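ARCHIVE CARD
CATEGORY: sequence design from structure
SOURCE FIELD: tokenized fold
FIELD CONTENT:
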């Protein structure tokens, strides 16, 4: 399981626990105070309507929370407004002498509803609690005597109830920030390990490729050194040109460039031009990401044809969203070697007289 998935599951579990705690508090303590003393709340239907509104908010929120998702802002913010209105309505129906006591069932319950809706939204949840405190304080001060004792009791009640709920919300957010930071650290560590593994694999691949190329060049050099091969022969010159082009292509693969395929084909063109071959190179289309192995297969026909060209050659690269096509026409019949084939790259070759046309085609994979 990835770190992000684990973080999501932890957060979903916290939401479900908070939803369950709020539902139990409303169904047990708040319901007991309201319906056990229903004749004291006036008007009674208004108090029961406020209770039903708070219950309905929980039901709506449960539709997302029980599926492991947070309540979307388009629902959470209006629902928070409904909760504040229901709280103020319930407070208005509560006898004044019950303010700051347990039978004032809506005041403490409201904070839990706000946490259910706005737990992961720091500014909205703080604004909602500030509004709840302001509304509650105003309603308290309208019914209690304005003296130091009553004001102190009001402040203590508000701070003790809402302070605990805000602390719960802030602690949850702090824990989630720590978990996100840990997940980001682990993710970055995994990325670094992946980059290191890829770099190591790339280095091994380059060493293997270099050994392979040098292994094919050494017999050619040995043959030239002991006189077994005649450097004036066309096939020997073709082999030398092909070996030089492949080595140059191998070196070009190490370069960090924005368009590797064009860069590598241009390296092969440069080798041919150094031999006196006039080469035209045309590129059409935007850059398309091509894997290294596929680039090698695409470039192989170009190397084969350019190494055999005598005076002129034409290379064209066409790139679309669906495929990459690399074609070459050289003024010499290719009689030695054959382009490498693979299941990914389709290679066609035609020779007519002293002209050779080769084309490699790769279907872009998503």
């Amino acid at each position: 399981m990835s770190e992000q998935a684990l973080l999501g599951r932890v957060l979903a579990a916290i939401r479900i626990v908070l939803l369950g705690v709020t539902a139990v508090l409303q169904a047990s303590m708040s319901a007991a105070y309201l319906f056990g003393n229903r004749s004291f709340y006036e008007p009674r239907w208004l108090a029961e309507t406020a209770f039903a509104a708070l219950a309905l908010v929980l039901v709506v929120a449960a539709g997302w929370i029980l599926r492991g998702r947070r309540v979307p802002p388009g629902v959470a913010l209006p629902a928070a407004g409904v909760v504040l209105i229901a709280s103020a309505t319930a407070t208005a129906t509560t006898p004044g002498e019950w303010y700051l006591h347990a039978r004032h069932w809506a005041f403490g319950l409201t904070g839990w509803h706000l946490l259910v809706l706005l737990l992961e939204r720091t500014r909205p949840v703080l604004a909602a609690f500030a509004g709840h405190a302001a509304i509650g304080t105003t309603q308290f001060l309208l019914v209690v005597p304005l003296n130091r004792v009553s004001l102190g009791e009001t402040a203590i009640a508000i701070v003790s109830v809402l302070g605990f709920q805000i602390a719960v919300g802030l602690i949850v957010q702090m824990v989630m920030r720590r978990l996100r930071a840990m997940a980001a650290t682990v993710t970055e560590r995994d990325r670094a390990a992946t980059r290191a593994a890829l770099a190591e694999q790339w280095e091994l691949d380059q060493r293997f490729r270099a050994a392979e190329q040098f292994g094919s060049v050494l017999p050619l050099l040995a043959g030239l050194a002991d006189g077994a091969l005649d450097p004036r022969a066309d096939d020997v010159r073709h082999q030398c040109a092909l070996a030089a082009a492949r080595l140059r292509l191998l070196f070009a693969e190490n370069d960090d460039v924005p368009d590797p395929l064009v860069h590598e084909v241009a390296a092969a063109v440069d080798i041919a031009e150094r031999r006196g071959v006039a080469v035209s190179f045309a590129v059409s289309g935007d850059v398309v990401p091509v894997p290294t192995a596929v680039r090698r297969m695409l470039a192989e026909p170009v190397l084969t044809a350019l190494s055999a060209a005598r005076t002129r050659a034409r290379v064209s690269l066409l790139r679309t969203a669906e495929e990459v096509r690399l074609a070459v026409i050289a003024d010499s019949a290719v009689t030695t070697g054959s382009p490498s084939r693979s299941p990914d790259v389709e290679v066609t070759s035609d020779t007519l007289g002293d002209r050779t046309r080769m084309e490699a085609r790769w279907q872009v994979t998503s």
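CARD ANNOTATION: The longest helix spans residues 148-225. The first strand starts at residue 278 and ends at 284.
SHELF: design records, drawer C
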